[in-house]
Amino acid sequence: GPPPPVSAHAAARGHSSSFGTTGPARLRLPMAGRAFANARRGRRLRAESMTPAAGAARLGRRRLRSRKARGRGGGETSEKSAGSKKIRFAEAVEATATSDTPAPDQSEARRGERPTDTTSKAFGCSILNVAMSCVPVAGDGDEVCANCGKQGSDTVKLRKCTACRLVKYCGVDCQRAHRKQHKKACKQRVAELKDEQLYSQGHQRPEGDFCPICTLPIPLLMDDYSSFNACCMKRICHGCHMAAKKRGLADCPFCRTPYPKNDAVGLALVKARVLKKDPEAINNLGQQYYHGRLGLHKDMRKAVELFTEAAELGSVEALFNLGNVYYFGEGVQEDKLKGAEFYTRAAMQGHVGSRHNLGQAEARKGNFNRAVKHWMISAKMGEKTSIENMKRVFTTGLATKKQYAEAMNGYQDAIEEMKSDDRDEAMRFG
To answer: Which residues form a coiled coil (predicted)?
Structure first.
């Protein structure tokens, strides 16, 4: 048979085979040049964005041709051997093509260059398989338009969906076109964001719940442990009142204004602060109309108007009062949804009563998981009724032992924080 072929590299350098010299190197240069070109071309084709199946098939065809060339002089035995190997290799190629494991990108490992035929990062679809489903991926998904796939750049400004903040659009038209597909995920994410804000905010009581003299939080219910002074619109705890009397101070411990001698003087003090647009004074005047005190006739409509004005000016207590009147229909048409909205706004600013009432509302609807979250927060701020509710839901299996223990520990810490010697003395003397 013919002598075994000499490699192009060996032929170009004039190397010898076992059958003798191959001849001068200059006689082999054209063939060597073609061999080097083919080798480089083969490496480039294998490196540039080739699917695993295509790469395996190409390699298999070359190996089969090489084996056939070596087995031409071997007779029928070599042909059968080559045929059986071809069958086995075809099965291996088919298995590789159906495998979900991608082949490593050798071009990037070898030359550190980006392949020319790569998978699109923006939509996860290759140009070698145009039927592939184009789904935004996590990598650069927030840098392309969710509808048309246009890449964000200096000329293409992408804007996030203002509701869910999950996707971006290159324009209003794309946002409208994608609305039907995005609507469900958008609403779900909006609800999640709303709950995150609801349960993560309002864990600290507002400034009005602290005595301005001793700076300690006032125990709940605050009307039982403090008094509201119309002269300065400050709530002073009974302990500081007791300490001021022991020092001979008969006036307001905070602003030193004499206490009003009758309802008319007290009402005049409140109205003077109302004229200055003090939100707490406006809320207090609304409470006087609500209960019919300080010589005023009970007027629920006027009370609601004053509560609304005070809430717009920033009064957290006014939000709580609006929640009560709408949720229970006192002076207005009952609207539990609107009442819950006012409770929510107040609770997110630290109002303990509003947080507890939100838990009550969720429990009435059977949403005990949400109710427990609200009661845990209010219990940690010292709400006695909330910790009693936590005990009930724990004994009935609607709350875990860990949740009840966490609420109880927080409640005890809050109670300890509210204690003082002056307050204990005031409690003893009534």
So the answer is: none
